[in-house]
# Entry
Amino acid sequence: MKMKVSKFGRAALLACVLVVPAIQGCATNTDPRVAAAVDDKPFYTWFNGLVDQIKADPNYKRMPIDTEAEANQFMVELHDAYRHRISKKDFAALQNSRYPNHQNEVSFIVSEASIVGAISPD
# Structure
């Protein structure tokens, strides 16, 4: 169990780096959908690569995902898009409706996902 807790902590930390670099209170969570994302090795490897790409892009601006619930929701939706349960277009529409001033960041995430073939084209 201790190993899973550390995975959850790492996922929360990476989610914070991805969307909320300065967030406080990134806590361990037990949402089973987040656990599924963390335990999905190909997704988690891809997610770590996405985080590295975001860190390297000076134009990427932090999306206002300020709560654990928001971070969990984003992670679950990103995982759903990665696994083709929702389309790239639907993922982008969801994020753009929540974060209307961050179309560039959403486009970046979707385009990076497309480069590696992770998210379905439509």
